[in-house]
Specification:
By secondary structure, the protein is an all-alpha fold. 75% of the residues lie in helices and 0% in strands.
């Protein structure tokens, strides 16, 4: 028997389940039950409060679909967890930590090194979060930088750098959404034109550098950093501290596995995209076209592809180096899996909650709001788009879903040849990144917590004031951009406002 369409479909009520989940998580500091209650509320709304249908929706449309649809990324998480356990057991992480202590002398240097590594790994946000976290944990731990601060640095470079890198899984997603729209240019060209106006992503980098150089923190992060610096309480998850490993490890025992993983994951993604003329996934033949292969790839297949081959080669390398026996290497398999159980659980619940929000027609509600705003706020529309994208991504936990909903609406609102279309697309992408950055149910936020090995809710609550500061500056910049329509002028203004805001906040917190 088919259920009637929910009476709450396409209304503000579609956003209530994630609001409930996020609110409970921030109040109770407990993610699992908060997310489940949000799923329950969404299923009740969707099924018009029918109890049996609600249970069926939670299990089949929510949890089972989330596990099946994300099996590839779950596999990659487990593979990466095993690789991290291998590198730790070999002593590679400890050796790198000792090297960093000798060569990276200050806390500022450690934070900036983390930032630079995050910028360099621009291929994919999941890969960025987990790789930067595993590499930089020994460095930041050695300089008594708290794990929540590390999680912020990871999160603040993962999605923002992917959103301004023409060769990334995010560029592929955006160009794919825009490809079939009547803009007069290709999807990737529209993405590249939007980069200079992506104020949130670019100003986040200014904010990180300013915060590190000015040597202060504010909000909940200030307490975490004070405890780490003065008492050595890093805020790490239980069992995630430094591992000295075998004692035979060298810095190369960390660098070589990371390089192998990076290269093979990149090869895996372009292979799946058809770069080598083998297109087993039913997409477009992109033989020899690197950017086209990224536009055609599926990270949920490409990353496990590269991760599995990397794992085999890394085991062979470490055993051949005699820093680990084969038996010790195999003992790392369950350790890696256990380490990734929390992020896999949270990701499953978060994806289930997103499914409930989508089924309740959140996109229909947002489309109505956008079309209403476009009739009376034309020059202010980029700023409105930014705010709507922030709220939608925050509530739904997905930046890809957000720009998938909003880009067609933005294209319909503006003239195809106008600069405002470019600014509007940028506002959509910037807002999607901002909301995703703030949201406790965002997969990138979950990955950042996993990469830093810190409590997820603590990560969210400590980074919110930072993300909101940059969002406020970006909002003002988008207001100006709607009238000035110059990327250079607006970026300079945004940079000045960001640094000015940091100076004002430091004076207020030190008073």
């Amino acid at each position: 028997m088919e259920l009637a369409v929910s009476s709450m479909y396409g209304t503000f009520w579609a956003l209530v389940p994630p609001i409930v989940a996020i609110g409970l998580a921030l109040i109770t500091k407990e993610a699992y039950s908060s997310l489940f209650i949000g799923i329950l509320v969404g299923a009740l709304f969707q099924c018009n409060f029918a109890p049996v249908a609600t249970l069926d929706t939670i299990v089949n449309d929510g949890l089972v679909s989330a596990i099946a649809g994300n099996a590839g990324i779950f596999l990659f998480l487990v593979l990466l967890g095993i690789i991290v356990a291998l590198v730790n057991a070999s002593g590679g992480s400890a050796a790198f930590g000792r090297w960093a202590q000798r060569n990276i002398k200050t806390r500022v240097g450690a934070m900036l090194a983390t930032f630079v590594l995050g910028i360099l790994i621009f291929i994919d946000d999941y890969f960025n979060c987990l790789t930067v976290g595993s590499v930089m944990r020994p460095v930041t731990d050695g300089h008594r930088i708290s794990r929540p601060k590390l999680a912020y640095l990871i999160d603040a470079t993962a999605a923002p750098v992917c959103m301004i890198a023409p060769v990334s899984s995010w560029a592929a997603a955006v160009s794919g959404v825009a490809a079939d729209l009547d803009t007069g240019i290709s999807g990737i060209e529209l993405f590249i034109r939007a980069i200079p106006y992506n104020f949130y992503s670019l100003l986040t980098f200014v904010f990180i550098i300013g915060l590190a150089v000015m040597k202060f923190d504010y909000g909940p992060m200030k307490l975490c950093e004070s405890r780490a610096r003065d008492k050595g309480e890093l805020g790490a998850l239980e069992g995630s501290g430094s591992d000295e490993g075998s004692g035979k490890g060298k810095v190369l025992d960390l660098i070589i596995p990371v390089v192998v993983l990076f290269v093979l994951c990149t090869v895996g993604m372009i292979y799946v995209g058809g770069f080598f003329g083998v297109d087993a996934w039913g997409g477009t033949d992109c033989a020899g076209d690197f950017i086209g292969a990224f536009g055609n790839t599926d990270a949920f297949i490409g990353l496990p592809w590269g991760g599995l081959i990397s794992l085999v080669l890394i085991v062979i390398y470490l055993v051949a180096r005699r820093v680990l026996s084969f038996k010790e290497a195999m003992a790392c398999v369950p350790k890696g899996f256990i380490a990734m159980v929390p992020p896999i659980t949270i990701l499953t619940l978060a994806v289930s909650l997103k499914s409930m929000t989508s089924a309740l027609g959140a996109d229909v509600f947002v489309e109505g709001v956008m079309k209403g705003a476009s009739q009376s706020l034309y020059s202010l529309l980029p700023a409105v788009i930014f705010v709507v994208a922030c709220l939608l991504a925050f509530a739904s936990g997905t930046s890809w879903g957000t720009f998938g909903i909003l880009i067609p609406i933005v294209v319909a609102v503006f003239e195809p040849s106008s600069t405002l279309l470019t600014i509007g697309i940028s506002a959509c992408l910037a807002g999607a990144v901002c909301g995703d950055h703030c949201s406790p149910i965002s997969d990138t936020t979950i990955m950042a917590s996993a990469g830093a090995q810190c409590d997820h809710v603590t990560h969210v609550s400590t980074q919110l004031p930072y993300a909101i500061t940059v969002a406020a500056v970006s909002f003002v910049t988008f207001i100006v951009a709607g009238f000035v329509q110059s990327a250079v002028i607006c970026l300079l203004l945004g940079a000045v406002l960001t640094v000015g805001a940091l100076y004002v906040i430091r004076m207020m917190t030190e008073a």
